[in-house]
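JOB MANIFEST
job_type = single_chain_structure
chain_count = 1
residues = 116
[input]
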Amino acid sequence: MSRVTCAVSSRKRRKRVLERAKGFYGNSSKNIRTVYDAVNKAKSHAYEGRKQKKRQYRARWIGRINAACRALNVTYSRFMDGLKKADITLNRKVLADLAVTNPAEFKALVEKVIQA
């Protein structure tokens, strides 16, 4: 009976991991033991980065809405409170886009919110 080495599958696995480590510095792209560590670390950073991206976009939208509101002598919190009281359901992404691209419409929205 011949000896089974699983060479094909292990080589395929290593090759796949080495491909993911392309561009890494030094042994992190060549030595298979350090490559595994580097790729796992990169995966964890990528996972966390996807969460941070969402936070950063939301903060950017809030900043833009706040700046547009301040230009119209209204605070961000009063504006958002007025939106809820006026039963206007626009998310921050849409509001920020409206504030940047259509200031006249945003001003009309702010006036509507203040009256409510």
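[summary]
The chain has a mean pLDDT of 94.
The radius of gyration is 26 Å.
exit_status = 0
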